[in-house]
Amino acid sequence: MDLILDLLATVSRWSRSHLSEIALALVGCLLVLFGADIKGWLEQRLGSISGFLRVPLLALLCTLGSGAALVYATPWVIRGFSQFNNYSLAPVLIVVLVLIGVVADRK
Question: What is the residue extent of each domain of the chain?
Fold first, then answer.
């Protein structure tokens, strides 16, 4: 049992030192997974605008929205993951990665 706890603590400490990269990757994965749904929602909202204005506006909104999500959501994810102690961070990250994999598999 001590071996497993030591392994969890070691992996959690390593993960904690790379938490900014892990959080950025998770937010990026979520943007890739749900980007088409967000784009579809935006296209519905902008459907009444002529095509000449709709295409650049849609590109601008998607670019700014994705960039803002990466810049502003990543620190929130870091703060959320940093609340876990060294015995629970690694299992939580594994569960989150598995959940993202399940969602990706269903899409």
Answer: 2-106
pLDDT (tens digit, 9 = 90+) per residue, 15-62? 999 999 999 999 999 999 998 898 888 888 887 777 788 888 888 888
SS (H, E, C) the chain: CHHHHHHHHHHHHHHHHCHHHHHHHHHHHHHHHHHHHHHHHHHHHCCCCCHHHHHHHHHHHHHHHHHHHHHHHHHHHHHHHCCCCCCCHHHHHHHHHHHHHHHHHHC
Read off the pTM. Answer: 0.82
- Answer for the pair 7, 87: CB distance below 8 angstroms, yes or no: no
